[in-house]
Known about the structure:
Number of strands of chain B: 0
Number of helices of chain A: 14
Shape of chain A: globular
Helix content of chain B: over 70%
Strand content of chain B: under 5%
Order of helices and strands of chain A: HHHHHHHHHHHHHH
Distance between the termini of chain B: 32 Å
Distance between the termini of chain A: 53 Å
Structural class of chain A: mainly alpha
Mean pLDDT of chain A: 89
Radius of gyration of chain B: 24 Å
Order of helices and strands of chain B: HHHHHHHHHHHHH
Oligomer: heterodimer
Radius of gyration of chain A: 25 Å
Number of strands of chain A: 0
Shape of chain B: globular
Amino acid sequence: xxxxxxxxxxxxxxxxxxxxxxxxxxxxxxxxxxxxxxxxxxxxxxxxxxxxxxxxxxxxxxxxxxxxxxxxxxxxxxxxxxxxxxxxxxxxxxxxxxxxxxxxxxxxxxxxxxxxxxxxxxxxxxxxxxxxxxxxxxxxxxxxxxxxxxxxxxxxxxxxxxxxxxxxxxxxxxxxxxxxxxxxxxxxxxxxxxxxxxxxxxxxxxxxxxxxxxxxxxxxxxxxxxxxxxxxxxxxxxxxxxxxxxxxxxxxxxxxxxxxxxxxxxxxxxxxxxxxxxxxxxxxxxxxx
Amino acid sequence: xxxxxxxxxxxxxxxxxxxxxxxxxxxxxxxxxxxxxxxxxxxxxxxxxxxxxxxxxxxxxxxxxxxxxxxxxxxxxxxxxxxxxxxxxxxxxxxxxxxxxxxxxxxxxxxxxxxxxxxxxxxxxxxxxxxxxxxxxxxxxxxxxxxxxxxxxxxxxxxxxxxxxxxxxxxxxxxxxxxxxxxxxxxxxxxxxxxxxxxxxxxxxxxxxxxxxxxxxxxxxxxxxxxxxxxxxxxxxxxxxxxxxxxxxxxxxxxxxxxxxxxxxxxxxxxxxxxxxxxxxxxx
Lengths: 289, 284
């Protein structure tokens, strides 16, 4: 009996020794502290270096306010556009069978594998003065590049897959039984979507919109290429941060940056709450992006 | 019973009673074409106005080659760092319990949510010679900000969530019985990890590595502040595109863009093949 007891290891066979465990936890937490916590702390410390008054002044200064307004405007156009697209794409792909589906999925993912700078570049090449339709646009007084339409297009491009990517696997997993029942009972397509599908996908939808919005408001590379950097006119918040930083106005740069950091933190909190409370109603891949 | 049909199988669409297929697919294809396909076609077609020789000349300039090399090597090192530490973080989050674990788990996604320009100036202030971290490295002769090392730091930040978030679900799904069986058969814990667990999570690890690499190669916002941007030394390829655009060298900018696209897709293809080969080997 005693021999048996001695042969029983002090810990389950499928765990590591306490030393290895402590080592992994320490190293991993140190890595996260260095790369996540420190940069975040730096943003707020630098922003408040000269006190709250200076911080507030940097935020209510006219160019900063214009940047905040423009960022909100761009997101207000780009996010609903990608929302409508995401729902349509998910409806077509998840509820129907057709050839070429996997190719379509690959194409929808394409903007994620393209550099942000290239995402802006493509619109400069398409609508800039040296492009095929550039002279036509100029003669008709339409400005796309170095103006708000360009910013919106570049933002739509980089946030293109977010909603679709969340909804497609979710709606595929849910199947079409509910919808088929509704149609059989005489509901129209729109009624079926609004009363049957939408309640099923609402949290997934919110999740996708949340991530889409965070990226839309924070995008830098793509909008930097199409913006033209006109202060007070085509500067979004991230671009305003860059201008202030390059003018060595560090406190103001970090003040505007801190607003963006707060937006990121709010996004993370809302996203985590959704995952904890409605994890079952999100796509299986939700945790990965 | 097989039904004979003259229509090839891939053309036969199974009829669904759910309406709206034509409308939603139409909107999807239209939007995809306008927003993504036509603009990308404009990029891919643009360099050809200078001919193949011109394209080759544009991307083999020493400055362009140096930028491409820098972008890919720094991205590779950053992705490698993330593969090692990301595996550690994923392991910690799945296998161990400690206070505040949920918050740590949520914070891993910060690099996805934090605008890249904010990350860029924050990391620069940390690693500048008088910064919180830089002041300790400077006396040791280690310069991070304004050198290629700084680029690796920024790219490590950007790619951090990819490995964690691809490995984590696979670790969660891992069958405990496999490890118990290995232990029963006399394997040490280390042997169980290297011979049983590691082969099972390797595909996910490589996917995470590839995603981090692809993201890092194209990254712009977080890098330009910390890089110093010296031509031939610390100038990344996306920045060179921006510089060419500012000089109105549209064809030159497009050439670098196309070269980056080709290299990235080639890399993803190789990794995909490696993964398939690995899966077949593992017999899974």
